[in-house]
Amino acid sequence: TSSQPKKEFVNEEIEETFSKYDLPISFQEPVTQAMLKEILITDTDCVSLLDIPPNVVSVNSDGADIITERNKQYAEACGKRFKIDNYVDRAMQTLKRAAKNKCTQMDLMLKTDAGNMPLFHLSALREAFCFPQTFDMFVISSCSLKDVEAVGTSSNTKLDWELIKTSEKFHYLLVITERIILRSIFHCPLAAYRGLPVKPEEMDQSKRCTEISCSPALECLWVFSCELTRGRTVSCMAWDKNNPDLLAVGYSETDSMNEKPGLVCCWCIINPTWPERIIYCDGAITTLDFSANHPGRLAVGMSDGVIAIYNLQTADIKAPTFSKYVEETVGSFATCISHKDCLFLQDANIYLTCTWEGNIQKRSCSRSYDLLETYSKHSGPANCVTWCPFHPDVFLSCSSDSTIRLWKQDCKSPMLSFTSNHRAVHEVRWSPRQAAVFGAVNDSQLEIWDLNTNFLNPVIVQRAAPGLKMTSLLFASRSDCVMVGDSCGQVTVYKLQNIFTGESSQVK
Amino acid sequence: MDGVEETLKRIESNASVAGTIVLNSEGVPIRSSFDSGTSSRYGREVSEITALARSAVRDLDPQNDLQLLCIRFNKREIIIGAGEILSEISFLFLLIDS
After folding, report:
1. Residue A79 lies inside a defined structural domain of this protein
2. A328: in domain
3. Which residues of chain A neighbour B51 with C-beta distances below 8 Å?
4. What is the assigned CATH class of domain B2-97?
5. CA-nearest residue of chain B to A148?
6. Coil, helix or strand at residue A209
7. Is the pLDDT of residue A141 over 60?
């Protein structure tokens, strides 16, 4: 009596296991003669998640009573499952790890060819499964062992590496990790640049011990330099108007002897060791500037008269999007274009040019050949002219006669003249944050003048390292810092200390 | 913009970086600047802990995925980046000195 239910149970089990061999047959299309020639009936891989074979015990054996008793208890417990607190429903997460290949072995199944049976009914299927010899069933009799070595076979890893190298995600991760490392290295200088306080335990040992002086001074924060720029002269620098952390630097050839192609590097202050974008140009770069209205466009002027506009948004920049050859200088957006003549825009109409003879000429945009005014006082070629950002009528000029002169627009002779050592002054710039402060750079030193304090001498003088000539200067608009480019391809960032904003200066 | 190899070389040439190891999904080092013994040791340990971190992230938010994992020791710091290509997982990781 008790053997009866067990037999049924065993039968059910067999049926269940065989129902896993479901054949994917579709009844949708009518089966044509052509299709009948090749019908492959295969067997999907069998995945057994849990395999507990039942223990079959004869009713007449000795331990049968205990087992029947246990079976009964188990059946009762299953029935009461929902009511007792001992059982709690809980979801588990299956962690998908890398698949491992395991070898299995089975006895070879006997195969015999039988007649093709094109149409099946589901009931016929069920019967047919009990007699496996009726169909062609391809069974994997043994799997090949796949060795998973500790170090990996060479061909596998090379393929993997090639795949990984081309992945954008990998590249992105690399860039992020590089920035993380650089951030930890340059943490203190960057904080000083942004004007943020630095906790004492994060500073270097050396800096903690120095006393804080009250006099104006320059603190060197970091240097933008890489192997590409070594040996070139910095000719011009410009900030991106849309992204105040991006600095474009143009490099020209050092002497006329080495004919290297001109180079423009866009540096981000996050990474002083490698520029974000590198552009090679045909000629030496004399000037560059960013567009205010179109983000990511950089206009570059070269010494052979070519103006090119580059789109910086793509990572790989080979050719300019726009290139034009101009015979003479054209003022587009406050840039100075060709070699010796410089242009600076003040309001939309008036601009200044400086000339080889040392005259500064004021012209109007609407009638560009009309000379509105000539300011002549310099005895050497005028190198640079810059309008004061706080006073619309005031501008500074510097020239190779080692003087810097302060002019007012209506007055033909300069208001003030500054000179400190007898070297040609390459560039002069107003500070965008303090009204009476400007900086000038000549071959041997950087000078910061503060007109509120001292008319005769610069308040800070920073001498160039021996063998280096300073060639270019730029103030940072968001920070009390000044960038100095030199003849070795380096751009050094200095922080101005102890120069205080006074009231705007009175011009005599 | 330079390629992956140049960026890796630049990272490795940094003074405070001890080296980099790239692992595949099984934790086997594919490209490493250390010797194979150290690489495989680190590979084994790191793949375990990254799988744990990743399952934690996915538990909290199934749409999310692990991108970077930084572990700071007393003497060193490890940065582990994880990514998937073609449903294989590729790791990158670096060692930095303190």
Report:
1. no
2. yes
3. 95, 97
4. alpha beta
5. B26
6. helix
7. no
Which of A136, A141, A142 is CA-nearest to residue A116? Answer: A136
In which band, very low, low, confident or very high, does the pLDDT at A415 lie, cut at 50, 70 and 90?
A: confident
- Provide the residue ranges of all domains of chain B, joining segments of one domain with +: 2-97
What confidence tens digit (pLDDT) does each residue in A182-238 have? Answer: 887 888 888 888 877 777 665 554 454 444 566 777 888 888 888 888 878 888 888
pLDDT at res. A434? 79
For A316-336, write each residue's pLDDT tens digit: 555 665 555 554 333 333 333
- Quick check: B90 and A160 CB within 8 A? yes
Are residues B26 and A152, on separate chains, in Cβ contact within 8 Å? yes
A148 inside 8 A of chain B by CB: yes
B32 lies within 8 A of chain A by CB = no
State which amino acid sits at residue A398: C
In terms of Cβ atoms closer than 10 Å to its own Cβ (0-12, 13-18, 19+), residue A281 is buried
The number of beta carbons lying within 10 Å of the beta carbon of residue A146 is: 9
- Please give the model's pTM, rounded to 2 decimal places: 0.61
- The DSSP line for A439-453 is EEEESSEEEEEETTT
**DSSP one-letter string for A319-356:** S-SEEEE-SS---SSS---SSS-EEEE-SSSEEEEE-T
C-beta atoms of B92 and A174 within 8 A: yes
Residues 276-315 of A with CB under 8 A from B: 277, 315
pLDDT at A3: 44
Shortest CA distance from B53: residue in chain A: A95
Q: Higher confidence at residue A255 or residue A189? A: A189
> For chain A, what is the domain count?
2
- CB-nearest to B22 from A97, A164, A277 is A164
* Residue A146 touches partner B, C-beta closer than 8 Å: no
Which CATH number does the domain housing residue A232 bear? 2.130.10.10
Nearest to A174 among B7, B51, B96 (CB): B7
For residue A367, give its domain range: 218-497
pLDDT at A447: 85
For residue A476, the Cα-to-chain-centroid distance in whole angstroms is 22
- Counting one residue from chain A and one from chain B, the pairs whose CB atoms sit within 8 A come to 98
CA distance A29 to A119: 12
